[in-house]
Structures are given as C-alpha cells and as structure tokens.
Amino acid sequence: MIFTVAIDGPAASGKGTIAKALARELGFRHLDTGSLYRAVALRSLEGEDPVAAARSLDPERLGDPRLREPRVAQEASRIAAIPEVRAALLDFQKGFARRDGGAVLDGRDIGTVVCPEAEAKLFVTATAEARAGRRHAEQVAAGLDSTLEGTLAEVRARDARDAGRDVAPLRPAEDAVLIDTSGLSIEQAVSAALAVVRSRIGR
Ligand code: CDP
Ligand code: CDP
C-alpha cells in the first residue's frame, strides 16, 4: 500500500504537530522536511558551501538540537531559495513519500513539488500573530533569548522569503484542504486533519 499525506504551511502554523500526531494515529512514517533545510543551514553558518552540504547530507542524522535555533531557521529560508540545494534534497524526499506503507511529510512544497500525487493534502495556516506567539513561547521554554516583537518580525521575514522565491514557493496545492489553526487547540487541529485523511483512505 502506498499512501502519502502532504502537509504544507508557514512557520509555526502547527503542521509538524499535526504531522506527528497523524503518523502516530495511522501507523505511518513521518518526515519533517524542514529539518533537512535546517541541517544544510547549520553547515552553511559553519562556513560550508550550502550546495555541497545539501549534496552530502545524511538524512538519518537530523537530531542536532541547534537545528531549532532562530538563526538556523532564518538561514534555512535563505539557502532554501537556491535551486541546486532544493534539487539535491528532492530524491530522498520523493523516495520517503512513495515507499511501501503510509507516509506523512510536512514542509512548504510537499503537495506542489515533492509529491503532487499525494492521496491527501493539507495546507495548515494561522495568523502571523498566533504563530509568533507560539514560537516565542517555545523559545522561552527552551531557555533561548526571545521577544514577541522580534519573533513576529522573524516569522514575517521568513513567510515573505518562502512565499516570494522563484523555486517551489510556499503556496497551497489546488487540491489541498485548508486548516486554519489560529483559534484551534492542538486536539481540534489534529482531529480536523484526521477527518480529512480518513475520508481519503476510505475512497
Ligand atoms: O511545524 P510548525 O512550525 O508549523 O509548527 P509546530 O512546531 O507544529 O507548532 C508550533 C507550536 O505551536 C508548538 O509549540 C505547538 O505546540 C503549538 N501549537 C498550538 O499551540 N496550537 C495548535 N493548534 C498547533 C500547534
Ligand atoms: O518549523 P518551521 O515551520 O518554523 O520551519 P521548518 O519547517 O523547519 O523550515 C525551515 C525553512 O526551511 C523554511 O522557512 C523554508 O524556507 C525551508 N523549507 C523549504 O523551503 N521547503 C520545505 N519543504 C521545508 C522547509
């Protein structure tokens, strides 16, 4: 059985939380594709050429806690605009999506580029204010220096870069179901997503 759930959306919209919960609930494997771009970004910040870093990336080694740092997120959205970086990461993502068994992938271009044939597509959004509030709370909890205003500015800058780039810009696939999580609890967002996916599995 091959069944792919493609989940896209902007920073801190809740797509990763939904992706993990769906994978757990359905027994599907899960790939956070943002961590691939973050891993390349970390190596770029350390002085390596981002294209060379993407070509030699080991996707099995994405556990570095520094990947969650705000400076890495910003650098990720810069190196993610380089076509050769995106091309180098594509085969791994496509293979992950279409191996036997179910898969959930979350990112920016899963439903549009990585897996346009996905059986279920979700586009998860929330207002920039709601997303910045969540990301700020996470950063404070992690003991990182963070202000709400600074986080909102970072979220907006990343949204603009991700939606404005020429290659694989952030946008909903035509057949994606939109879920706005601004006023939803995690449980509500997960059950809305699960209902969409189950209706597709039932077909
Ligand atoms: O993966 P993405 O960056 O889109 O977001 P996430 O990491 O899933 O969620 C960002 C933060 O928002 C996490 O701390 C979640 O617990 C929180 N969240 C929330 O408060 N309400 C939701 N409906 C979904 C996520
Ligand atoms: O968790 P959050 O939404 O904050 O970020 P992420 O999903 O870890 O992605 C970090 C950056 O990688 C994004 O701002 C995008 O520029 C890039 N990215 C991408 O271009 N395509 C993807 N499929 C996933 C991430």
TrEMBL record:
CDD domains: CMPK (cd02020). Residues 5-198 form the Cytidylate kinase domain. The keyword Cytoplasm applies. Its EC number is 2.7.4.25. GO terms for molecular function: ATP binding; CMP kinase activity; dCMP kinase activity. Its main location: cytoplasm. GO terms for biological process: pyrimidine nucleotide metabolic process. It comes from the Bacteria. ATP binds at G9, P10, A11, A12, S13, G14, K15, G16, T17. Belongs to the cytidylate kinase family. Type 1 subfamily. This is Cytidylate kinase. The lineage of its organism: Bacteria, Pseudomonadati, Pseudomonadota, Alphaproteobacteria, Rhodobacterales. The gene is cmk.
